[in-house]
Each structure stands twice: as C-alpha cells, then as structure tokens.
Amino acid sequence: MPTINIQIFEGRTVEQKRELVKAITEATVKTLQCSEGAVDIIIQDVKKENWATGGKLWSD
C-alpha cells in the first residue's frame, strides 16, 4: 500500500486538493499497478514562516 506525503504552502482550496489527489492516485495506480483503494495520500499545509530554502524563510 503506497502512502504519499505531500507538503504544500497553505492556502490551496479543497477543490485544488481534490484535483491533486485524484491525479496522483491515477498516476500511482497506473505506475505501480495497484488499486485506488491501496493509495493513501496525506497533505500537510505548511505556513511560509515554517519553510525555508537556501537559508531563507519563504515568508521573508
């Protein structure tokens, strides 16, 4: 059973998340030849103040 963890900046709509998990599920089923019911996806909304790249917070 694949479990996919996604971390994204907060602010996406529920509809955007629905579209994302649908697309990822379809790709996973096709690639791994598993059932849709076997695919778990966890989305974590992260504030920009809690994410940094290259030593700089995204909120800066």
UniProtKB/TrEMBL annotation:
Q: Which domain of life is it from?
A: Bacteria
The GO terms describing molecular function are: isomerase activity
What InterPro entries does this protein map onto?
A: 4-OT, 4-OT-like_dom, Tautomerase/MIF_sf
Pfam families associated with the record: Tautomerase
Determine if Isomerase is one of this entry's keywords.
yes
Q: What class of enzyme is it?
A: isomerase
Q: Which residues form the 4-oxalocrotonate tautomerase-like domain?
A: 2-58
As given in the record, the signal peptide range reads none
Transmembrane residues, as ranges? none
Keywords assigned by UniProt?
Isomerase
Which EC number applies? 5.3.2.-
Catalytic positions?
A: 2 (proton acceptor)
What family does this belong to? Belongs to the 4-oxalocrotonate tautomerase family.
This protein is called Tautomerase
